[in-house]
Amino acid sequence: MKKSKVFLIIAIIFMLIVFYVVYDMSTRTRFPGGKPSKKGEYNNSDKDSVKQVDPMEVEIRR
């Protein structure tokens, strides 16, 4: 009976530590897409890294 009480106490303490770490991490981080952009700051998300071409101009090579 004493072993189960010790295990239960250790399990509760472990869970409290895990919940504290998760809460702390969630309060310190923010979603990057939710940050407002500053004026004059270059925004990389506006441009696509893939060159946009007209589908009718694509040349088929054989």
UniProtKB/TrEMBL annotation:
Annotated TM spans: 6-23
Keyword Transmembrane helix: yes
Keyword Membrane recorded: yes
Keywords: Membrane, Transmembrane, Transmembrane helix
Region of interest (Disordered), residue spans: 32-62
Ranges of biased composition (kind: Basic and acidic residues): 38-51
Name of this chain's protein: Uncharacterized protein
